[in-house]
Amino acid sequence: MKNTLRSLLVIAAGLLVLSTSDLFAADAPQTALSLPPSKDNPRNSEGDFVTLKDGRILFIYTHFTGGGSDDAAAFLASRISSDGGRTWTPKDQLVMENNAGENIMSVSLLRLQDGRIALFYLRKNSISDCRPAIHFSTDEGQSWSAPTEVIGEKEIGYYVVNNDRLVQLADGRLIFPTSQHNSPSLKKFNGFGTVRCYISDDKAQTWHRGKDSQDGTRADGKQTLLQEPGLVELKGGRLMMWARTNGGSQFVCYSRDRGETWSEFEPSILKSPVSPASIERLPKTKDLVVAWNDHSNIPKELRGKRTPLTIAISSDEGKSWRQVKTIFDNPTGWYCYTAIEFVDDSILLGHCAGDRAKGNGLALTQITRVPIKWLYADEK
Questions:
Q1: Is 282 within 8 Å of 376 (Cβ atoms)?
Q2: pLDDT at position 298, please?
Q3: 3-class DSSP state of 41
């Protein structure tokens, strides 16, 4: 009898440990989908999400076929989740064939205020011609309109626009930031880049270039890299733009006229390698959330590396950040190009998560589901 009772107690204790472990796992970030490279598909990267009207989530990303480099042949593919991003369809669905000289990549998906879905991406033709195109869907991504060029033939150049960068302001204005690195007149790729915004006030029928541009030249004549900018609308109508730099942090600037003119870029408190950040606003708490590589206390051997993947929140419009939490910290991991989507009680991150020790760090894209209560947990 004693042995039987002891056995029952051991079993009960084991079940208690298991259930506690499962509960902890459910409250922590989870990898929901991993898209590793293969022989015929050497890279998957730079995607974005949109929530469909029936509650499903569509994720579109770049499926490379011609190699792992940024100019290798590629098309747009998709996966769908029907359970809030916990699980995803097992096979790629073709969304858009390659319609450029080299590839199409860096997807932004945006639900517009008129109900349409915008599909925005880069058409890369050559080292001097990389410009965005936009399509629209009125049937929840089942079909797409013909592509429209956003930057016309008179402004041909190599423009970098990251994934998840197209923004619609509260007043309906569409805007995206870009860094231009080449043009036929330059005849040479310039890594420093010139940052500017393109704007539409007629539902993306026409676009104009904002009044300001910045190339990172300081008063002393020296130049700071300005690459892969993003922007977010702040409370009160101001806009904040950030860019990756070689200055040890994300640099930021501000606009008070809906993106036409900007203050000078200045260093922020977001310590960072030369790697992009992503910032959006949480719908319920109205805090800003940022995903980036936090290098505020990085060991010497990891300086310049795109690790760890970190997330934090701000209640003062990006002046300060709290609840700084590490999601992944593999020393040879390569975490970047993060898309953000809010689904019920969670944040979905679509990001590169390759391993430099195994090859190209940009080769693998991953979807990570982050419970919002985990992000705010233990806050004093």
A1: no
A2: 97
A3: strand
